[in-house]
Amino acid sequence: MSIRTKLTGMIALTIIVPVILATVISFWYVKDRERERGLQLTEWSLERGTLQMERYVSDLSRLPTSLYANRDVLDILEYGPGLSLEQTELEVRRALLGMYLSREDVAQIQLLMLEDMDSFAAYKMKVSPRSKRQPSEIQQQLLKYEESRVLLEASHPLVPYHDFGPLVSEEEVVTLHFRLDKIETDQPLAILSIDIPEDVFIGQLASLQNNPSESLWFVGGGNQVFAQLGDDEIPQNVSTNSLSSDGKHHRIVKSFEFENQTFYVGKSIPDRLLTEPASRTSFIIFVVGMVSLVLALIGATYASMRLTTPIKTLTSNIWRIEQGDMTVSFDSLGNDEFGVLGRQFKRMIERIDDLIQREYRLALENRTNELRALQAQTNPHFLFNALQSIGTLALKGDGKTVYRLITQLSSMMRYTMHPDESLVTLKREVDHLTSYIRLQQVRFPDQFEIEVDVPEPLLDLIVPKMILQPLAENFFKHGFERDGATAANRFSVRIHQSGSNLVIHCENSGRDLSDEELTLLKERIEVSTEPLNGAEGTGLKNIRDRLMLNYNREAQFMLATPETGGFRIVMRFPAVTEADAS
């Protein structure tokens, strides 16, 4: 977090926080106001549209009443065709054609005379001859309906009432069924059915639609749908003058009464349309705020660059010093306070560099001496065991075996003759372990099983010296049973690479350690900083200490007791090649 970043961030916060607060507050305030205003306007508009729909249906229902003004047609309906059937048919057809031509929004008209079930129909400027036809289901319902002489049938496909040939166009229509009664006795005389294209009612709804996302519908009782515009579903239960919301949509419903029937005109508006003005207002506020922020950031960046460029130069030079490059220059800082600071800092670095070089040489010498001490602590321990074994065989007079032991021992001593050599290849370490195992095989023939599994590609890796042979020595010291069977004395070393780490997995068939003993051993090896002075775990501690000296926290040294018994040691440390080690 540089001064430039802090300065720029502070200026940004002083602008962006008020802008965000203003945007959020204005959005929520304006959103509620705009939603309320939008719903009021929509309700007012829908109320006018409902009144317009009521007037249209009422005006449509007055069309059949024109037949009451035609006395000849009324007499035909009341008394029958009379003496001249041809004249009667002509009079009825003329009346239907005149009614059909009086309105452009009529698709089809049927007149069904109930006396003899004679039917006439007008469609596409044609009037059908008289035919026999039975009342439809809704026409029968109208005959039984005492509360009104008018029934409005829901939207359905257009079906010709007579054979006019193929339909000119397939369309949906809404049918107005009007029952013509005798004025004096209310006796049903005929039923006049008028088909109105559904598009007429959709056009009425379209005049109330302000956005294509809005949905409108014109329905009646029993969920009869006369017209629908939009994709939103029509509510199952529509109530009079209702206003409802599900959080995403707002529904407003208006109703009107006609001939003892209730009709509903509803509208569904997405909430986003109502709150869109609030979003635009908030967006404008946000854009203005962002423009102000950009301008402020440009000014702050320019000012901070003039102020912080010397500091960045000083910081970059300090970073170079941290990486070990002590040859730095502060000549570019000028002659002001930063220039003075740079020159003083340069002199201080030169003095520190001298002290570091001296301290570094001392540290290297101390580390080398510590490694030598650890290695020397291991060698006498092994030498004592080897010489004791050779002395025992010499007393027995087995000269060849003694010679082999001395040869193996000399090979091992050559390996340990260079205490300055702290890192070796894995191949040399494995060869040293093999020499030690051959010594022990001569001492204890056919008394133990040894497994050494090392993939050949890993043999060129660099490992700390003397980390494998002490593991085998630990087995013979603490886990080997001289009188036991071969299968009871097992020792295995398996080495593999896991990612960038080298893993050494060692197990032996020594005695099982209890949890308390294992914990105590771990504390001695990992926690204790004092020499163990011959106590159990000396070899293991030496190995762990050398791993930590070479790899610090990147190394792991783990002890465990397997479920199958015995003792397990797992070492994990970085897999380093000879080039990386150098």
From TrEMBL:
InterPro entries: Bact_2-comp_sensor_kinase, HAMP_dom, HATPase_C_sf, Sig_transdc_His_kin_internal. Residues 305-357 form the HAMP domain. The chain crosses the membrane at residues 7-30, 283-303. It comes from Exiguobacterium mexicanum. It is found in: Cell membrane. Its EC number is 2.7.13.3. The keyword Signal does not apply. One of its GO terms (molecular function) is protein histidine kinase activity. It is a multi-pass membrane protein. This is Sensor histidine kinase. It is an enzyme of class 2 (transferase). Pfam families: HAMP, His_kinase. SUPFAM superfamilies: ATPase domain of HSP90 chaperone/DNA topoisomerase II/histidine kinase (SSF55874), HAMP domain-like (SSF158472). Keywords: ATP-binding, Cell membrane, Kinase, Membrane, Nucleotide-binding, Phosphoprotein, Transferase, Transmembrane, Transmembrane helix, Two-component regulatory system. It comes from the Bacteria. The keyword Transferase applies.
